[in-house]
Amino acid sequence: MSEESEGELEARLPEGESFEPPQSFVEQANVSDEAIYEEFEENWPDCWERAADLIDWEEPYDQVLDDDDAPFYEWFVDGKLNASYNCLDRHIEAGRGDEAAIEWVGEPTDETQTYTYEGLYREVNEFAAALRDMGVEEDDVVTMYMPMIPELPVAMLACARIGAPHSVVFAGFSADALATRMNSADSEYLVTCDGYFRRGDPLNHKEKAEEGLEGVDHEVETVVVDRLGEDLDHDLRDAEHDYDDLVASNAGAEVEPVTRDAEDMLFLMYTSGTTGQPKGVKHTTGGYLSYVAWTSQAVLDVKPDDTYWCSADIGWITGHSYIVYGPLALGTTTVMYEGTPDYPEKDRLWEIVDDYDVTQLYTAPTAIRAFMKWGEQYPEQHDLSSLRLLGTVGEPINPRAWKWYYKHIGDEECPVIDTWWQTETGGMMVTTLPGVGEMKPGSAGPPLPGISANVVDMSGDEVQPGEAGYLTVDRPWPGMLRTLYKNDERFIDEYWTEYSDEDADEWVYFPEDGAKIDEDGYITVLGRVDDVLNVSGHRLGTMELESAIVGVEGVAEAAVVGGKHDIKGEAVYAYVITEDGYEGDEGLRDRIVEGVEDAIGPIARPEEVIFTPELPKTRSGKIMRRLLEDIANGEELGNTSTLRNPEVVRDIENKVRGD
Ligand code: PRX
Fold first, then answer.
1. pLDDT of 253-309, one tens digit each?
2. pTM of the model as a whole
3. Which is the closest atom of ligand 1 to the Cα of 316?
4. Alpha-carbon distances of 270 from 20, 177, 181, 273, 302, rounded to whole Å
5. What is the pLDDT of residues 495-507, one digit of tens each?
6. The predicted structure's pLDDT at residue 431
7. Cα–Cα distance between 187 and 141 in angstroms, integer?
């Protein structure tokens, strides 16, 4: 963006200004009456029937919410359904089998594929039959370690069809991360692929999967999708099956969707927490599917005729909820893109919007900051007038990036929704309703209808407008996680101890985010307050990072903090003490970076590795991370007098500033 046009924009859209939703949008919006907030309030929890009504139930539920065993809430009690039926069969029964379900766009510009609902149904059934043949039974966890190829949603829906929960591991995660997750879930089945394209080059993924399997402590049957054909020859080993062969040998198979209880697990999704061990977040069939269908309809304004695009990766919750389950439950067309936004050119996304007449675009602030840096000449090369709504998720969006998105992508004609939610919440929680609420750049908005979110101080009292506090949610919602896989105790510890009053049976969910609220009840989320970093919208636990670094030969101790980063939001800063006899040199730095990539993946690569003889510690021996953060961010250092070793602070500061 040029200096001049940026100044012009800032002048026209000053800080603190708010925007009414464009009239053209409101007129056609799925939800445009603000009375919805009150309707949900007055009717809570029965208001959630409105979400459940968006999906088909084989047997109706008897009760909307059962809170007898809180916080182990149950939603749509005794209802029976199948998620795959809801995403496929019912649209075909409604005569829409020929309409596009998935528009897949490969990274190579000449590779695209359209899956109609009928076509998707066929492949899902064939693969479901194949999984059954392999021995997959109801409630067996099937792991998927796959990039953005159509076989990933096919496999997810095939699992849903036979009642086998899936656990998708982001393809960018390392072999170790795959092994940890498969062991934790006792998962005996893996679906993966030979490789995929990244910036024009074929990338070997199978090798990484094989390496991961070496760390799995039980037998695994693997299915391998051949994505790269001749670009990457591979041999199948024992207990490995070729996806195409499996599907071909089940050609025409029909698999009756298994009747699932509303509370049966639909999938597991691992996410980072405070400890080194990732948390297996459990989502259920009825509550989750209703919730993502409802939020797709009310917030993303999805309609069956839309071509809707969420540019996240299906390896994260955003892709599960808003590429696969939400849009397909509503019978719309969902776009899936394999590659990166800057390949072959920095206008790739805009080219796709133009080519497919995309109606909604849902992306992340980190991407918007990159687009902004590249400049508006890229979107200007394309006709983006098909867009009706823009969304963001994953991290706070700064008002400047918000306004750039609003103007240069939306042409001031599209509402921008800044949606706050988490892996654990299953779907959106805090955002404006695009056809109802005014938008305030930088602030997500009020809690959605039926959601009770507050900003409180440490003792749980609501803070004054403008004051920083902690975000809490004091009523359950259908899309909520039900527990952490096989770890009810950790579920309570992580989310329900901070602000709940167990004796009074009052349960308050703590998402571990800081926030502030304004006079209109708009919530601005400030970021994590636990030891979790948010790097390009991805959650990384500092403990996971530190244990990866300490695992490198020559490292005695490490402390990881987040440093501010223009594009990534936060970047990994690692402070490292070497073992006696080792030098803090380039060689060790490279091995540390490699160690982190091996243990977690390239997304976790440290931005800076700072060797230091000591770490600043309190008298009781606790590392003062806040100080390390201030140093990383070049901020004024607070009081260091409580430190056991205050002299070390200047040394570290000089090193960082000298870099
Ligand atoms: O800190 C919040 C941040 O992302 C965290 C959730 O990360 P994850 O479970 O990976 O899910 C990401 C996609 C839903 C939150 O605890 N976060 C998410 N959305 C926003 C946000 N921070 C500020 N504003 C948002 N809109």
1. 999 999 999 999 999 999 988 777 889 999 999 999 999 999 999 999 999 999 999
2. 0.94
3. 10
4. 38, 10, 7, 10, 27
5. 999 999 999 999 9
6. 98
7. 5
d(CA 222, ligand 1 centre) in Å: 32
Asked whether residue 585 is domain-assigned, the answer is yes
**CB-based contacts of 265: which residues, under 8 Å, 6+ apart?**
139, 165, 282, 283, 284, 285, 482
For ligand 1, residues with CB inside 6 Å are 271, 317-318, 393-396, 418-423, 444, 511, 513, 525, 527-528, 534, 539
Q: How far is the CA of 471 from the centre of ligand 1 (A)?
A: 12
Domain range enclosing 644: 532-658
* Overall average pLDDT of the 598-605 stretch: 95
Q: Which own/partner contact pairs does 483-486 have at CB distance under 8 Å and 24+ positions apart?
A: 483/72, 483/282, 484/279, 484/280, 484/281, 484/282, 485/184, 485/185, 485/268, 485/280, 485/281, 485/282, 486/280
| Ligand 1 atom index nearest CA of 418 | 26
591 CA to middle of ligand 1, Å? 31
For residue 430, the ligand 1 atom closest to its alpha carbon is: 26
Tell me the average pLDDT across 49-55.
98
- Among 500, 528, 556, identify where a domain stops: 528
Are 473 and 549 within one domain?
no
Report pLDDT digits (tens) over 255-266.
999 999 999 999
